[in-house]
Backbone:
């Protein structure tokens, strides 16, 4: 899936901007109402607004379409990705490119497989049945506005949706307890195509770019992985 050079530059910025110590992203520039700094405790749970419900509905329906599309094929979907890694504010090696195959695994989930296991590809595929997204998509697709926060054992998760730069975005924020409060230890964001591409290339529900970021020990820098579908 090809994009223009200008748009290619915008998407990584929308994932994670840099330059501010302790700030996971630049909230005003991104337009994401749920941005977090690493030192900021989890916000009070909120029910999805009407606007967020509209975005979430498009994303969850697109994810459903993708699952059905891949499951209905008689062959794997071959996909090319570029991978970029940053460790505590510094680039960790050159950009890598990898070819992977999307398929349905034994549990019915979609997965990415690749022969180069050492490249660090994110092999789980975001869909409406992904373990972190399913509770929210189940409510959204049933017409119910969910609360954006769930607890799973000792962890809490906030899953939110927003729109920016011609894509719908899903953010998964994971929180651990520290000093009596919960603080983010992982922020994941993905740009989802919710428009239909011309056959035979169906891009509906596919993730264009996906980024995962974790704080460094001092909470003043981050380590990240950005994976883009080419």
Residues:
């Amino acid at each position: 899936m090809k994009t223009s050079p200008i748009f290619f530059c915008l998407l990584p910025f929308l994932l994670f901007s840099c330059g501010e110590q302790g700030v996971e992203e630049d909230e005003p520039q991104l337009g994401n109402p749920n941005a977090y700094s690493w030192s900021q405790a989890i916000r009070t749970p909120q029910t999805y607004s009407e606007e967020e419900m509209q975005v979430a509905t498009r994303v969850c329906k697109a994810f459903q379409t993708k699952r059905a599309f891949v499951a209905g094929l008689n062959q794997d979907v071959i996909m090319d990705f570029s991978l970029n890694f940053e460790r505590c504010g510094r680039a960790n090696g050159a950009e890598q490119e990898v070819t992977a195959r999307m398929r349905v695994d034994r549990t019915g989930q979609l997965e990415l497989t690749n022969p180069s296991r050492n490249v660090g590809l994110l092999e789980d595929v975001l869909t409406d049945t992904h373990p972190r997204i399913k509770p929210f998509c189940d409510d959204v697709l049933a017409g119910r506005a969910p609360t954006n926060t769930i607890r799973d054992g000792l962890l809490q998760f906030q899953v939110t949706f927003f729109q920016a730069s011609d894509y719908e975005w899903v953010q998964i924020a994971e929180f651990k307890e520290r000093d009596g409060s919960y603080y983010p230890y992982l922020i994941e964001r993905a740009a989802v195509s919710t428009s239909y591409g011309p056959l035979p290339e169906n891009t509906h529900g596919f993730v264009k770019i996906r980024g995962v970021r974790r704080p460094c020990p001092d909470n003043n820098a981050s380590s990240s992985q950005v994976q883009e579908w080419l």
